[in-house]
């Protein structure tokens, strides 16, 4: 009996030791698996960090390439502009239709298109004076109902400004007759489009108008456009740069696609003295933009030049020219 008990005790002891070894082996195996898992997680984090760094580097390289391309384009435009201006000075500016720089003003009613056009016409060849040559409150201006062209001479160059009614009707459809009229009056151009917005206002209608512009004037329209922000009496005096920085995304994108060409115009009478240098800067910007394209007008494939020329002749007869 004692021998049997001793044998069982020995077996139990051996079984206990074996069980402990098995448990220890399982613990070691679990610890190994945990170590492997931690290393895999660490490797995953390292790979993710590497991917992020590579993505940031690619993004940085793309941004740097974009800045390089913009600088290159700006330099090329400056070279073309300088060459064109030198050629213009050497050859003179013949007083014929082909030497006009035609500018179309586009915007919704209330944006200040007509006020901007009248201000440009009034200020273009004035010398600066702190006293407004047209004192008194402004007369009410009715909404523009048809395209109207006005000429001005500025520093030996002829400009043709074309004011327009809204290019879209109440349903958002293009007013084709208005489009034909403004293109006809702008012959031999247009060379430049002024996109006019009232400072502090950007509506859904204006967003729709911007979306329509490539169809109306061609896909290159923003390359030939300058954004103009009008400011009337009683509006905030916040700088136009600050307004652009805080503007809705669609408007900021438009300014960017226009090559960041934008100007402010004080069209209110109370701050009219400030408009003198603004008009000078705007016309200088128009001249630079035209020169950067070697004086060539925007190409319009929607309507033939002959069709637009005949339409312009009819308008001239109607207007008594």
Automatic annotation (TrEMBL):
Domain AIG1-type G residue range list: 98-307
Chain spans, region Disordered: 33-74, 124-144
Q: Which UniProt keywords apply?
A: GTP-binding, Nucleotide-binding
Cross-referenced PROSITE patterns, in alphabetical order?
A: G_AIG1
The UniProt transmembrane annotation reads none
* SUPFAM superfamilies to which the protein is assigned, alphabetical: P-loop containing nucleoside triphosphate hydrolases
Q: Pfam families of this UniProt entry?
A: AIG1
For bias kind Basic and acidic residues, which ranges apply?
124-134
Q: Which InterPro entries match?
A: G_AIG1 (IPR006703), GIMA/IAN/Toc (IPR045058), P-loop_NTPase (IPR027417)
Select a single GO molecular function from the record's annotations and give it. GTP binding
User: What protein family is recorded?
Assistant: Belongs to the TRAFAC class TrmE-Era-EngA-EngB-Septin-like GTPase superfamily. AIG1/Toc34/Toc159-like paraseptin GTPase family. IAN subfamily.
| Protein name, per record | AIG1-type G domain-containing protein
This protein's species is Gadus morhua
